[in-house]
From TrEMBL:
Taxonomic source organism: Litorimonas cladophorae
Protein keywords: Amino-acid biosynthesis, Arginine biosynthesis, ATP-binding, Glutamine amidotransferase, Ligase, Nucleotide-binding, Pyrimidine biosynthesis
Gene name in the database record: carA
Active site: 279 (nucleophile), 363, 365
InterPro entries: Anth_synth/Amidotransfase, CarbamoylP_synth_ssu, CarbamoylP_synth_ssu_N, CarbP_synth_ssu_N_sf, Class_I_gatase-like, CPSase_GATase1, GATASE
Name used for this protein in its record: Carbamoyl phosphate synthase small chain
Length: 385
C-alpha cells in the first residue's frame, strides 16, 4: 500500500504506527489524537457509531463513501453523557462531507464533530485502508487535523508507536457514568417522540459505557432502570434490591476491566439475580464464569452481521462493534453457547445452564434488522418478571 495523497493541499492526516500516511481534508476538531484504527461497514448510523462509548480510543474508518448527508440530531446521541472521552477520537471518510439535508438535523456533521472533540479526515482511499486492516489487523495510529497543513510526520509516527494500545486498557471506569441515576425514557414509538415510562420491576445497569438505546429498550419492555458506575460494588448494587442486573457494553480490554468487574459479577450470580450482558458485558460475564477472551485481528464493526440463535435456530441481522471475543474452547461445562457469528463462527452468546443468566456479543438495541434482536430484551424482561 502506498501513501495516498489527495489533489488538494492536505489539512489532515492519518499516520499509522508503521509510518504509512493517509492525507486528506480535515473537518471537526483541530488537533491530534491517538487510537486504534478500525473499519465500520454500516451504511447508516454514523452519529450513533461515533457516540457509542465502546469506540473510546478508536479511530473509525467508514467504508460507506458518503457520510454526513443527514447531519446530526440530539436524539441520535448514544453516550449517556456528552463528555469527550465517551466517543471515538477520530472519523475517516471517503467523500468530503456535504451540507446536511434532513428534517431531523439540528447540526452539520463538521460542527458536531468539533463540539464533540472528534477529528474528521475526508478524501481518504478508505478501501485501501480497510484492505490494510483486513490483511494486517487493526493498527494504532494518530489522526491529526492542522488547517495550516503543517504535520510533523515523524513525531506523529513516534506517538502512534509509543501508544500502549487497547490490549490491557481499562477504559470502562472513565467512560461510564460516575453517578447513580434513573433512566425512564422508552423507545421512540410515538409520533411525538420518545416517551417516559414508569415501571415497577427494577434492574440495575452497570455502566461500562452504556448506549442510551439499550436503556430505552429495557424501559419499553417494562423495566425501570437504575444506572450505577462501573466500579460499584456488589454490596452497593444488592442494597438497591434490584430484580435483575444488566452488564453494559463498553470500550477497552475486558480482561483489564475484569480486575474489578469479575468479583462483582461473581457475587451477583451467587445472589441468583437474572443477568443480561451485552458486548463488553458479555465478555465480562464469560470471564466471571471462568472463560477467556482473545483479541481479534480486524474485529467486527458493522450493521449487517448474521448471527444464529441456537436456542431457536433463527438467524438475526445484527449490529456489531467489538475487537475482543470470547474463546469458545474456554467455556466451562456449566455454560452453553447460544449464539454464533455466521461470518466467522466466533462466539456471540452464552447462557448459564439452569440460571436466568445470559449474554450476547452483538448490540440488540442497534436495530439493523430492524427488530430482529429485540426478543433478547423481552427474554430478559420475562426472566426478571
Ligand atoms: N461494544 C462493546 O462493548 C465492545 C467490547 C470490547 N471493548 C471489544 O472491543 O470487544
Amino acid at each position: 500500500m502506498t501513501d495516498y495523497k489527495p489533489t488538494q493541499e492536505p489539512t489532515a492526516a492519518l499516520v499509522l504506527a508503521n509510518g504509512q500516511v493517509f492525507y486528506g481534508a480535515g473537518i471537526g476538531h483541530v488537533g491530534s489524537a491517538v487510537g486504534e484504527v478500525c473499519f465500520n461497514t454500516a451504511m447508516t448510523g454514523y452519529q450513533e457509531i461515533l457516540t457509542d462509548p465502546s469506540y473510546a480510543a478508536q479511530i473509525v474508518c467508514f467504508t460507506f463513501p458518503h457520510v454526513g448527508n443527514t447531519g446530526t440530531s440530539i436524539d441520535d446521541e448514544e453516550a449517556s453523557s456528552p463528555r469527550a472521552e465517551t466517543a471515538a477520537v477520530g472519523a475517516i471518510f471517503r467523500a468530503a462531507v456535504t451540507p446536511a439535508s434532513n428534517w431531523r438535523s439540528d447540526a452539520e456533521l463538521g460542527d458536531w464533530l468539533a463540539a464533540r472533540k472528534i477529528i474528521g479526515l475526508s478524501g481518504v482511499d478508505t478501501r485501501a485502508l480497510t484492505a490494510f486492516i483486513r490483511d494486517n489487523g487493526m493498527p494504532n495510529g494518530v489522526i491529526a487535523h492542522a488547517p495550516d497543513g503543517v504535520f510533523d510526520i515523524e513525531a506523529l509516527t513516534q506517538q502512534a508507536r509509543e501508544w500502549a494500545g487497547l490490549v490491557g486498557a481499562d477504559l470502562a471506569k472513565d467512560v461510564g457514568s460516575q453517578e447513580y441515576f434513573d433512566w425512564t425514557q422508552a423507545r421512540w414509538n410515538l409520533p411525538g417522540g420518545y416517551s417516559d415510562v414508569e415501571n415497577t420491576k427494577r434492574v440495575v445497569m452497570i455502566d461500562y459505557g452504556v448506549k442510551r438505546n439499550i436503556m430505552r429498550n429495557l424501559v419499553s419492555c417494562g423495566l425501570a432502570v437504575t444506572v450505577v458506575p462501573a466500579t460499584a460494588s456488589a454490596e452497593d448494587i444488592l442494597a438497591l434490591k434490584p430484580d435483575g442486573v444488566v452488564l453494559s457494553n463498553g470500550p477497552g480490554d475486558p480482561e483489564a476491566t475484569g480486575t474489578y468487574a469479575i468479583p462483582t459479577i461473581q457475587k451477583l450470580i451467587a445472589a441468583d439475580l437474572p443477568l443480561l450482558g451485552i458486548c463488553l458485558g458479555h465478555q465480562l460475564l464469560a470471564l466471571a464464569l471462568g472463560a477467556k477472551t482473545v483479541k481479534m485481528d480486524q474485529g467486527h464493526h458493522g450493521a449487517n452481521h448474521p448471527v444464529k440463535d441456537y436456542t431457536t435456530n433463527k438467524v438475526e441481522i445484527v449490529s456489531m462493534n467489538h475487537g475482543f471475543a470470547v474463546d469458545r474452547q474456554s467455556l466451562p461445562d456449566s455454560v452453553e453457547e447460544t449464539h454464533v457469528s455466521l461470518f466467522d463462527g466466533s462466539n456471540c452468546g452464552i447462557r448459564v445452564k439452569g440460571k436466568p443468566v445470559f449474554s450476547v456479543q452483538h448490540h440488540p438495541e442497534a436495530s439493523p434488522g430492524p427488530q430482529d434482536s429485540f426478543y433478547l430484551f423481552e427474554r430478559f424482561a420475562d426472566a426478571v418478571g
